[in-house]
């Protein structure tokens, strides 16, 4: 019983934050700016993609389905739905939402590359 009460108290701020986030309106950007790191060479590259577009990065093929951001603020906290495939693999190595402010929340797990979202584009 005490454990349940402590859990409820611990989750209260999370629940309140989620409710507050739901209250914010989201807008759809026209695309996204992604940053890619080649962990072997140390090279960093920024890639701009439009919604629905694909690009290649070494052995990876990156497709941006869409990018969303808080209303009126495309650079503050973007989240993008990406599909990333490695050459020769049947299944994507990543498919889901990446959040610019929390890249470790749902990261790409790849031996050579790191890819994360920086911001949405609006034009």
Per-chain topology:
Layout: H1 2-23, E1 26-28, E2 31-38, E3 44-50, E4 54-57, E5 60-70, E6 79-86, E7 94-99, E8 113-121
Antiparallel strand pairs: 1-5, 2-3, 2-8, 4-5, 5-6, 6-7
Q: What descriptors fit this protein?
A:
123 residues; alpha+beta; three-stranded antiparallel β-sheet; 8 strands
Produce a short descriptive summary.
With 123 residues, this protein is α+β, with helices and mostly antiparallel strands. The chain has one helix spanning 2-23, and strands spanning 26-28, 31-38, 44-50, 54-57, 60-70, 79-86, 94-99, 113-121. It is globular and about 40 Å long.
What can you see in these coordinates?
The chain is globular and about 40 Å long. Helices cover 18% and strands 46% of the residues. The strands form two sheets. Strands 1, 4, 5, 6 and 7 form a five-stranded antiparallel sheet that branches. It has a three-stranded antiparallel sheet with strand order 3-2-8, with no helix packed on it. A hairpin with a 7-residue loop joins strand 6 and strand 7. It has one helix and eight strands; from the N terminus they run αββββββββ.
